[in-house]
């Protein structure tokens, strides 16, 4: 039997055979956001791993109408032509995950990024409130909580001329410097980004912030009203109902879930209110078991399937990496005098150039590839997670102002996307398919160079990128600091740069020596590739983009040094050429 739950963040499939349940994850799927070809492709990916179930139950986000269910059923029937199939939405599958086995009318109260209430009686009658999306609905959701927090903070700023403590939290999370910057941010923010602000509201609530408390009290009351209205549609004013709380907001915030449960019981005394303990895909598998007339599956027997066919170095290699070993010189770091500790840090960093120099031949080869790519319309891509990803993005972001390079010429890819630049994104680095997908969506091709950065050498996200870049014919490189790393034979980068830096002074903290060495090597690659591509004369940046006062002053001095012109002559020439150093210098060089 096969149960599948498809949502906005990912798809989970549970396959039961002879008592063993195998769990696998795939990419996100929302019926409203997929055309027929894309829907078929999503289901084929699952069918490739689980090809011959006797029964399939699939609940997909965005499946609202009977026409939607028929469309999903048709596509699933093609993927599994011999199976009995039940196609529905992800709300029905969530209800079916309830561990309480007695027949009962149930109402699912869902609050995650979005929100919805969905009820079902034992005979299959259903009722629904919400599910209209964040523009028209999503009351009491993470999105609405985040948006209300923003509105409340700017309201009190306007009224009282004071920026609240909650507002300070929100700016810190978004890495913004002033409330004015919220205008541009909210205009471009994705639904999930706004919903992510709910975490700060809950954190402020825990510190007894009044604004946060008011927002969450309103959210709990709204959800309770909708839940009870759904129950009334289902069984009337007095019928017995079991309410099930689900979604990331309610599952990850038990204090808020308890507040909601209290509000529901106050409106509908005697009601059962429970948190959905099993993940929603368990309900899909339970429905599949009913289709096949088999007993419900046992979730405790679940094992993880291999999430990807992309070859990745085994986890055992992480523990063997030098970056994970304890450094004998820093065993007493917590008790070491500060002056002595600083000397130790400086001494360790002074050894980096020697270790990097041993890899010089490989680095030279890579720089040559990047130079050729730049000269032939190709691009350079960095890919990494955590510190490694941030350093790649940093080096890429410095190329446009330094060399007047097209922002697409050097690109950084970080596991977890933009939010991972300033906070940890759980599990992002463990997904090789996401690394491969990022390469596909960036359009990496034969003219390009792809450099994966992983201090330990085994980050799955990076290996997924190498796999896809290899498949597309790009030149591939792995930069790591694990000299004993064993490379998968079916997923080898063209060049492996692996300086032996020894253990970190703080065990496993690769933002230290590994991070410094990464920055040094990336600096060499882009600077020298740009220099050999005509972006430098001598040691002068003749293609810098003078976008501020400091850089304009530098541009004037560069033109003076290139042409022996006076400061006034250089300034005038730059103004006439829209601050293009090359053109200004050429203009002054004319007789």
What does this protein structure show overall?
It is a single chain. The chain is α/β, with parallel strands linked by helices and 591 residues long. It has four domains: 2-97 and 279-304, 2-Layer Sandwich (Nucleotidyltransferase, domain 5); 103-275, Nucleotidyltransferase, domain 5 (2-Layer Sandwich), CATH 3.30.420; 316-535, Glucose-6-phosphate isomerase like protein, domain 1 (Rossmann fold, 3-Layer(aba) Sandwich), CATH 3.40.50.10490; 538-589, Helicase, Ruva Protein, domain 3 (Orthogonal Bundle). Helices cover 48% and strands 15% of the residues. The chain is built from 24 helices and 18 strands. The chain has a six-stranded mixed beta sheet. Strands 8-7-6-9-10 form a five-stranded mixed beta sheet. Helix 19 (432-442) crosses helix 20. It is globular and about 95 Å long.
- Mean pLDDT level: 91
Helix content: 40-55%
Within the CATH hierarchy, at the fold level, what is the topology of the largest domain?
A: Rossmann fold
Q: Give a short account of the largest sheet.
A: 6 strands, mixed
Q: Major sheet: order of its strands?
A: 5-4-1-2-3-11
Q: What is the CATH H-level superfamily of the largest domain?
A: Glucose-6-phosphate isomerase like protein, domain 1
Class of the largest domain in CATH? Alpha Beta
**Principal-axes shape call:** globular
The total of beta strands comes to 18
Low-confidence parts: none
> What's the domain count?
4
CATH architecture name of the largest domain: 3-Layer(aba) Sandwich
β-sheet strand percentage = 5-15%
**Number of distinct helices:** 24
> In terms of structural class, how would the helical and strand content be classed?
alpha/beta
Rounded Rg? 29 Å
The end-to-end span amounts to: 83 Å
